[in-house]
């Protein structure tokens, strides 16, 4: 028959159990705090990515409208395919709309270039906070993130092409034929065929 613990042993063991339980609880709360912070950072980055892409897509739409207008009316219409003739007036508002949808605000917005491709760098801050945790200050801390999106032309053509005659574009393997003398805007493919919009970092 195994003898039971003496009263003195029980008295010494109880504080150890309490101490270990406290440590485990602290570790659990710490992991929860880090998970909260990671979730907030991920949400902020998603908002920044979406805002930057929205700004670039808005300018891509502007490029498409400019191209449609120029074909048949401007003998320099091929220049629009370089992807840099937009003004970008609607880009900041487009970025903020997407930030709004992600419960965030645009705190900085700027035109930029990456590898000679035009685009936008957007910084955002979430309207929500990291939340209460054992780490002081997280209840008032907002997550921040930034992203850059660019517009990349996808079409090649003969540089000696006569812009007043039919031109064949090779858009990453997809052939697009445009006849300025008999042009219908519906002849143009989707904007994504002519210009790629993607995150640069």
Describe the structure.
- By secondary structure, the chain is of the alpha+beta class.
- It has one domain (7-199).
- The chain is 39% helix and 26% strand.
- It is built from 3 helices and 7 strands, in the order ααββββββαβ.
- It has helices at residues 7-70, 91-101, 191-194; strands at 104-114, 117-129, 142-153, 155-156, 167-171, 174-178, 195-199.
- The strands form 2 sheets. A 4-stranded antiparallel beta sheet has the order 1-2-3-7. Strands 4-5-6 form a 3-stranded antiparallel beta sheet, with no helix packed on it.
- A hairpin with a 2-residue loop joins strand 1 (104-114) and strand 2.
- Helix 1 runs antiparallel to helix 2 (91-101).
- The radius of gyration is 29 Å and the shape is elongated.
- The protein starts with 6 loop residues before the first helix and ends with a strand.
- The mean pLDDT is 85.
Fill in the keyword field for this structure.
single chain; 201 residues; alpha+beta; 4-stranded antiparallel beta sheet; 3-stranded antiparallel beta sheet; 3 helices; 7 strands; 26% strand; elongated
Mean pLDDT: 85
Indicate how many domains the architecture comprises.
1
| Low-pLDDT residue intervals, each spanning 5 or more residues | none
What is the CA-atom radius of gyration, in angstroms? 29 Å
Overall morphology: elongated
Oligomer: single chain
Quick description:
The chain is an alpha+beta fold. It has 3 helices and 7 strands; from the N terminus they run H-H-E-E-E-E-E-E-H-E. Helix 1 runs antiparallel to helix 2.
How do the strands and helices of this protein lay out in sequence?
Elements: H1 7-70, H2 91-101, E1 104-114, E2 117-129, E3 142-153, E4 155-156, E5 167-171, E6 174-178, H3 191-194, E7 195-199
Antiparallel strand pairs: 1-2, 2-3, 3-7, 4-5, 5-6
């Amino acid at each position: 028959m195994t003898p039971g613990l003496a009263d003195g042993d029980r008295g010494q063991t109880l504080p150890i159990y309490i101490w270990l339980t406290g440590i485990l609880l602290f570790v659990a709360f710490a992991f929860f705090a880090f998970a909260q912070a990671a979730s907030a950072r991920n949400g902020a980055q998603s908002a920044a990515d979406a805002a930057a892409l929205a700004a670039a897509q808005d300018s891509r739409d502007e490029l498409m409208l400019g191209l449609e207008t120029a074909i048949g009316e401007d003998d320099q219409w091929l220049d629009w395919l370089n992807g840099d003739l937009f003004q970008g007036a609607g880009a900041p508002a487009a970025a903020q709309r997407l930030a709004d949808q992600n419960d965030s605000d645009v705190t900085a917005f700027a035109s930029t270039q990456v590898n000679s491709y035009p685009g936008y760098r957007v910084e955002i801050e979430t309207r929500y906070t990291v939340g209460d945790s054992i780490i002081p200050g997280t209840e008032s801390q907002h997550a921040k993130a930034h992203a850059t999106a660019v517009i990349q032309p996808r079409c090649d053509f003969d540089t000696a092409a006569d812009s007043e005659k039919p031109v064949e574009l090779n858009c990453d393997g997809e052939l697009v034929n445009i006849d300025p003398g008999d042009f219908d805007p519906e002849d143009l493919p989707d904007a994504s065929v002519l210009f790629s919009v993607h995150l640069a970092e």
